[in-house]
Amino acid sequence: MHFIAPREKLNTLVQITQKAVAQRSPMPLLSCLHFESKDNMLFLSSTDLEFGIRCTMPVTTIISGATAIPAKYVTSLINRLPDIDINIKCDISSNTTTFIYGDSEVVLNGYPADEFPIFPSFPNKPSLILQQDKFKNMIKHVIFAVSTEEHRPVFTGVNIRVNQNGILSMVATDTRRLALCEVHLDMPPDEIINIIVPGKTLNELFKILESVDDSLYIYVTENKVFFVIDNICLMSRLIAGQFPDYRIVVPENYICEVRTSVSKLLDAAERASLLVNTKRNVFNINFKPNGMMIYFYTETGRIREELEGNFSGDPLDVGFNVRFFIDVLKSINSEEVIIKLSGQDSPSLFKPVGDDRYFSILVPAVSQG
Question: Are 306 and 321 in contact (CB under 8 A)?
């Protein structure tokens, strides 16, 4: 393999691709980036067998070929090379790759490319095509509610559905909080979609979507999903299992509700987070006529903040995990939020004012102070 590539563009793709490298694996090849150059194109890929990324870019191919190089070293090297064209040569007899920049060079040891796992191919026709900013916004609304507890795999993912009416929905829950976002598709798919995508995959996709503006193509197979945008493809295994019906946890009746400023409530909650007991992370809110009052005391100190709001119903005192509370507010794009409370120990609903496509549920914690 021998090709020439501009350092800046190559570095961008290397930094993206290395996100799928296995962090701890008995297989050394899974800690590598796979380089393949042919027909004046570079194909760069990585995988941990559950999640993978493949990027492409035009290069000047002199000799077609491939190699696998440890990601730890090649990503650090390319990130530190000067912004000039890099001449990259692989000697397959010794599995070494030489990076020539100006009058200097670095040689890295690697592995045979033919032992690297083949990147899966996706179907010819996408299951779904939509604007990337729409999908990115949906991820932002729900990703905070994904569980990190691996012993319950279903909750570590986001349930993505498209029904017969062309409504795309995302739901995530860790059983203590839940978030749902829905949008109506301009181009509904031919078939109903109901899959569970790992939260890790959507987190990485969100970061990539922040830097591109192209349409997002989604391909779904029996056990995999592919997200393709521009020259980047993310592959992920789907989580097997049945996602729970979120509707059973949405309260039917409410004791009270308040409408208030998202930014002011968020600022107050973040100030409160400085004083809460870090083992419990619980703070109190008294919902009452004309608004609400945040209050509690710990060995660190005490706080009392009055916030204005449009209130209706009966006064109620509720404790919340302050970190979860902040995550909910950060997911809301509107200026105001409506909080509906069904009881001191019952789920509360958070809904942005003027947006019926999104809501989140937060289960109260035991009050303190």
Answer: no
